[in-house]
Amino acid sequence: MATARLNIPSGTAPRVVIVGAGPAGTRCAETLLAAGLVPTLVDENRRDGGQIYRRQPEGFRRDYATLYGSEAHKARALHDSFDRLRPRIDYRPDTLVWNLTPGQLCCVSQGRHFTLDYDALILCTGATDRLMPLEGWQLAGTYSLGGAQIALKAQSVSIGHRVVFMGSGPLLYLVASQYLKAGAQVAAVLDTSPLGKRIAALPKLLARPGLLWTGMKLLAQLCLARVPVHLGIQPVRVLGDAQGGVSLVQVKTAKGDGLDVECDALALGYHLRPETQLADLAGCRLAFDPASSQWLLELDEAGRTSVSGVYAAGDGAKIRGADGAEHAGRLVALALLEDLQQPVNAAELDEQRQALAVMDQFRLGLAQAFPWPSAQAKALPDTAIVCRCEMISAGELRRTVSEKGACEVNRAKAFSRVGMGRCQGRYCSQAGAEVIAAAAGVAVQEVGRQRGQAPVKPLSMLTGEVAP
Amino acid sequence: MKGRFVRLGERERAPVRLLVDGTPIEALQGDTLMVALLTQGPALRQSEFDSGRRAGFCLMGACQDCWVWTRAGERLRACSSEVREGLDILTTQPEAVWPLHG
Known about the structure:
The structure holds two protein chains of two kinds. Chain A is an alpha/beta fold. Helices cover 35% and strands 22% of the residues of chain A. Chain A is built from 15 helices and 24 strands. Chain A starts with 15 loop residues before the first strand and ends with a strand. Chain B is mainly β. Chain B has a five-stranded mixed sheet with strand order 3-2-8-6-7. Chain B has a two-stranded antiparallel sheet with strand order 4-5. The radius of gyration of chain B is 14 Å and the shape is globular. Chains A and B meet through strand 9, helix 4 and strand 10 of A and strand 1 and strand 5 of B. Strand 10 of chain A pairs antiparallel with strand 1 (6-7) of chain B.
């Protein structure tokens, strides 16, 4: 593995900033601290754990088994590790990094702006749900799958009285079964991936037989509870009204029949997309990943980006899940220590690399078993909304291609505003790229990717400035 | 529809009282504003770009579809702000809306 020497003025301790206090950020901070480096850990959330091991607020009483199911021991171990770290590192919760320049982060916390200087930056920024629009998805009551899970985990509420789970990926079955167990009414689980894809992916999924078994158990639980589970469906539309929101989900089954499911909530998602905006602003190269059909950071095996002193780990780097994030967090810390010419235990380095190789095999299996449904974008009716922030339709986006010749996503964004709304493209830019590519008759990687822009999330005009 | 969200547990928390568009509501300690509002009604806010009501989307501070305001004009993400006794929340944007779609 190539190391990239970092030059720190002699006699000074390197200033290391980690962004994100989920599994990757926590294990990274722990590994650095064990080697004698005291990192600054910035996190947008009020409490540690990231999204996957998000902690419930003070005053809630559910135990670990109820909250995290089969992953309870991992959640507890991560939280315990963090509690031990917390007094020994510079922890900045409730803090958004909204921009960066070489060596300096721009942050905002509770309405106050400040800067943080760094010699090394480790981005553990995680992922959000990956969304493919369908007609009517802007109606109140449609939530992202991850959002539906947060409602349950962090607040002990269901997103509706009768909930449909639609999309694809392991999270679909996990969240549906968590809802079922918590006493919510699950109207149906509608998966766009056909069974054949999963069978074909079995050799790769067997890299982690335990996890594969857990997935099969979730499916069995849903079937035992007589929840209708349909594989290989095609989403058609969400019906409802502008005031009351969602009332019906229409799909086409694998056999081609129409299926209507009455509901007042829809949880929708197609696995995850990485949060790469900060790395993008730092000038890190991204590359198109054909397996998952999305742009990912270009990284070496240990998490070094193309920019010296900038590293990435966890789902923000590559979607390998929570276990993978813990390993990647440790490994990236070891890489940084190497680059600082500090002694690194070769056996530990090897152990993390081997563990990650297994997770990567499984990642490829998941991408094959639950593919991103790019064909849906092509088939979207012109009236379907692509940008739910600003209500911009597939037809408007297609016209930027046919009338203005905008076959590159940033240019199409300038004309159509798809990707310019307040979510800044998080929920529309990937589907938007598919719509543009289909309209232009080229492969999706040919239309480029939406550039990250500062501020990476909206700031209030009331934000004040304080001395660092 | 009365409430969009349904409480499935954790009901033994202390009550917190706040105002939403001038009407008093009762929530529970530790609720996010989103849960406080959506356990009592179908939506959080009005879309600026069409006639639709909105009720949030991602719950993790990424989509910005759950903005509400304090009477003092501070903008809050309802999904990641906790209720506090006496909060005075408005669900309509205090500034003028830019008429992008006519």
